[in-house]
Amino acid sequence: MSAREPLIVQREVKPLDFLAAGETASEFKELLKSLGIPTDICRRASIVTYEAEMNTVIHGGGGVMSLRLEDDAIIIVAEDQGPGIADLEKAMQEGYSTAPDFVREMGFGAGMGLPNIKKYSDKLEIDTRVGEGTTLRAYIFIKGQREE
Amino acid sequence: MFLSEILGLLEAEKVGKSEHLSVEIGCAFASDLMSDVLALASPGSLLITGLTNIQIVRTASMLDMPGVVFVRGKRPAKETVELADKMGLPIILTNKTMFETCGILYAAGIKSCFCPKRSGQ
Ligand SMILES: Nc1ncnc2c1ncn2[C@@H]1O[C@H](COP(=O)(O)OP(=O)(O)OP(=O)(O)O)[C@@H](O)[C@H]1O
Ligand SMILES: [Mg+2]
After folding, report:
1. Which CATH architecture fits B3-116?
2. What is the pLDDT of residue B20?
3. How far is A36 from chain B (nearest CA, A)?
4. Domain ranges of chain B
């Protein structure tokens, strides 16, 4: 384990801005690629970032996305001060969604995002409080080991 | 099969710059639900969809998809084309329906991409 400083990038995302949504995920993906991270890891990180970013944009009232690159892990954090998630267990199930119709018309809101984030990350932590906000932290281990 | 051949089979037209038509296409995923594309499509597959908003380009690029087919002749918004051009993602537009598009490509040897089962099934 080297003592290298982790690389940290933070981006603000605006609520309901569907033109800009996904810019952060694209930027993080390009950055990881340029640092020589293997393609499949870059792809997993970008899917996780994109799903989390869409949730922040759609449900969270906007927030801050960050990427932290450590020696052995990529950590993606999405933090918002939105409404929070009342029933997290339900929200983690495929098909559960409170997305409004205009979001569904854009092809989203099928309740697949959180399960997909779980699938593509090695470890997932979600802290949420109704009326205060949500912080999602997804870890992707670069050497591929899964936490038991 | 090259995307340029698919352009011919679907009597499609290029949208925007669409410079990379010489890309090889082996498999495809068709859906109007980007949630499902993100969860189920395998990377590298061609995306066939009837939606044309800017997030279609974002979704395709996250999955390293080599191209997008817009069906039912629906013209994309300007920002969709601009982003696709910026990302070097080719888009082709056909008047055929989703069903016809899939049928033609399937008959021509394009495979369905590997899809993991949904959990709980
Ligand atoms: N940051 C957030 N703030 C508040 N609620 C959230 C947040 N993220 C998710 N949720 C809640 O959890 C539900 C499930 O989220 P999930 O990402 O799985 O599906 P979705 O966003 O509704 O649809 P999809 O991701 O398929 O487009 C959402 O509908 C919403 O009710
Ligand atoms: Mg979501």
Report:
1. 3-Layer(aba) Sandwich (3.40)
2. 84
3. 16
4. 3-116
